[in-house]
Amino acid sequence: MGSRIKQNPGTTFEVYVEVTCPLVAGSDPEVRRQFPKDYSDQEILQTVAKFCFPFYVDSLTVGQVGQNFTFVLTDIDSKQRFGFCRLSSGAKTCFCILSYLPWFEVFYKLLNVLADYTMKGQDSQRCELLQTLYRLPIPEPATSVHLSVHSYFTVPDTRELPSIPENRNLTEYFVAVDVNNMLHLYASMLYERRILICCSKLSTLTACVHGSAALLYPMFWQHVYIPVLPPHLLDYCSAPMPYLIGVHLSLIEKVRNISLEDVVILNMDTNTLETPFDDLQSLPNDVVSALKNRLKKVSMTTGDGVARAFLKAQAAFFGSYRNALKIEPEEPITFCEETFASHRSATMRQFLQNAIQLQLFKQFIDGRLDLLNSGEGFSDVFEEEINLGEYAGSDKLYHQWLSTVRKGSGAILNTVKTKANPAMKTVYKFAKDHAKMGIKEVKNRLKQKVLEDISENGCPTMPEDSIPRTAPSPLPEKRDPKLRDDRRPITDHFGLGSPNWSWQLVMGVLLPTRHSH
To answer: Is pTM beyond 0.85 here?
Structure first.
């Protein structure tokens, strides 16, 4: 399964809707306008409408105006559909585009234009823009697209590492969270915990969920993934299997009243993380120290520096998978878990023994084997990083694999010419004086740049008191070690061993369902 991104969708987007907030408490939001007009999936329309207002409407209205956020629906093939949203009119109206394409910056900008057309009553311009976009064949990455006088964009290249400040998700995550908490959350994801992220700003909330998940590359979160959870689904926070869920701060008090056990909670507003686990301490110290040092270097804070720092850590953790490939004449290439888990370092050996149980690692290996045995082969920035580093041990089996590939006996290794990251050019002026700046000042400038970009795109600048402040990270709660004995993440097949729960596609989201007795 690997990536949850659908390849080659039929259209640039599935449906565009304008949803109004319910006037009467307890009633559902209503779709006021939609495109195409003949879109007939009423279940999807109702689901989208509910996800457009993922907070207690009475708690904050004006404070949410102009914010862009994203929810995710999962189709029957486990592929993600992104609901790109913009709140306007005192948070009483939500403009939303549903698409399989993870074009965050592109759709956010288009939503600003569409919202402006709607507010000015320019119906013909709005319809013309939607028709042009809907009929547009999916363009190649890095292609420039002109839809109208006011609408043009460059197609993002999802094969490249996310860059700061071009990638809004990673930028907001880096600005809002300190290095220590980024490392703790990364470790929690590697151990496939149940993770809740909360924030008072929807834009920051969903950006941080997406930004943190992106740092797992070349692996992908394989469990429940809900960047923002609407009020009617809060009970799913008590599910016993791994999840990564974003919750608006107006709902967190109700969530805490639910029976939560062994849940990692990151509060974006206060930059504090609560965890009952020692996950970060359980990771090999040399890899964590190297990652921490890279993240604290000012030169790493723009371009793809942050993403590449995590990529190096992923290569250090998992790069030796190539030594565990088993190649036999006339037989499919397979993966030997015992070979992979054997390591001269006891700490790394313990980590790798846990890793082979992780769904994200299993899906990664299955994906690599599928590409090899189908004859497609692969080359990406992860493999390039392994080649640059010393992660694969002697690489004896890997070189045997390369020899086998070159002889054409089962797989073709596609080589991709590495291009200089264009984002580095666009941030040069912004980053050239970083040598004289500290991390804190860099973050302040990045934060200001994000606010300026939002303002230029048609969104009001966020009030200063709503911007997350950084605060010291609390030490993990030290519980009785006996309580942690034999604790292992629930990773196998989405919660087998939990007879009261099963998986079901609920309102477009793959969610756990509790069975009553």
So the answer is: no
